[in-house]
Design goal:
By secondary structure, this protein is of the alpha+beta class. Helices cover 47% and strands 23% of the residues. The two termini are 22 Å apart.
Amino acid sequence: MRFHNQQVDVGTLPQLSDVIFQGLEKAYLNVLLLRLSLFSLVLIISLVGLYIFQPLEDVLGFGYMAALGMGILYVIWRYIVVVNGFRNKAYALRSKDIVYKTGWLWKSTTTTPFNRVQHISIEQGPVERKWNLSRLRLFTAGGSTSDLSIPGIDHNTAQELKEYIAGKTRIAENEEE
């Protein structure tokens, strides 16, 4: 048997720009903003505590004002990142794989073929449960962490996706045998 390794014309490959992506649930933005608000509250309490419990001459100096200013700028920046980042999170289910894209400044697209999936899980924390949201996690061979994690999906949709993908992995396993 002779080895063949044919060259593929890149121009004939399917374009990811042709994929129609499904955005995450709008309620997931509430989850992200709630988490950020709790973090911001802890940061503000810490800065106020620093002001209250430090000697007055140490607190009124440039260091405290710089820390306060940096803290405020950081919180504002995080709100901008969260809102714009949410707008760019989306997934697409195709016949042989699932694609997840994320990122506002640093964009990332992850594609996981169904024939590589070993395990699928659905996770739901207490905040997500309030809005009936879940995180779909797909694991492929060779790792202890998920290879694809899609947050902010309606819980019923996540269950349906899990069943669909599990069915596709069973079909792929049967075809290999």
